[in-house]
Amino acid sequence: GIPCGPVKKEKGIHRLEAMLYALDRVNGDPRVLPNLTLGARILDTCSRDTYALEQALSFVRSLLPPAGGEGTCPDGSPPRRPPPERLVGVIGASASSVSIMVANVLRLFA
C-alpha cells in the first residue's frame, strides 16, 4: 500500500542491469556452463526491511507444496503443476538491515 519512492539509479537499476548483463554473457557462452541456463527472479525491497520480509515470505510460499496436499482433478488424476524453481542463491539488498532480515527468514528454509 505504501509506494516505494523514487527510483534509485545507482544503487538499484545500475546494479540490476549489471547482473542481467552478466547472466546474458554467462548464458551466451556455451563453454562457461554447458547445458545450463541461469535465470533470475528479481524482487524490489523498496529499501524497507518489513517489505523485504513480505517479499521473502511470499517467495518461500511459492516454492512450498500447497496446503492440504496436491488434491485431485475432476477425473481423479493428480493436478499437473510446473516443477518447483531451483534456487541456488540469493543476492541481498544494498542495505544491510534489509539483507539481514531476508537472510534470517530464508535461513529457516535452508
Automatic annotation (TrEMBL):
<dbReference type="GO" id="GO:0004930">
    <property type="term" value="F:G protein-coupled receptor activity"/>
</dbReference>
<feature type="domain" description="Receptor ligand binding region">
    <location>
        <begin position="15"/>
        <end position="109"/>
    </location>
</feature>
<keyword id="KW-1133">Transmembrane helix</keyword>
<dbReference type="Pfam" id="PF01094">
    <property type="entry name" value="ANF_receptor"/>
</dbReference>
<keyword id="KW-0812">Transmembrane</keyword>
<dbReference type="InterPro" id="IPR050726">
    <property type="entry name" value="mGluR"/>
</dbReference>
<dbReference type="InterPro" id="IPR028082">
    <property type="entry name" value="Peripla_BP_I"/>
</dbReference>
<dbReference type="InterPro" id="IPR001828">
    <property type="entry name" value="ANF_lig-bd_rcpt"/>
</dbReference>
<keyword id="KW-0325">Glycoprotein</keyword>
<dbReference type="GO" id="GO:0016020">
    <property type="term" value="C:membrane"/>
</dbReference>
<keyword id="KW-0472">Membrane</keyword>
<dbReference type="InterPro" id="IPR000337">
    <property type="entry name" value="GPCR_3"/>
</dbReference>
<feature type="region of interest" description="Disordered">
    <location>
        <begin position="65"/>
        <end position="84"/>
    </location>
</feature>
<keyword id="KW-0675">Receptor</keyword>
<protein>
    <submittedName>
        <fullName>GRM4 protein</fullName>
    </submittedName>
</protein>
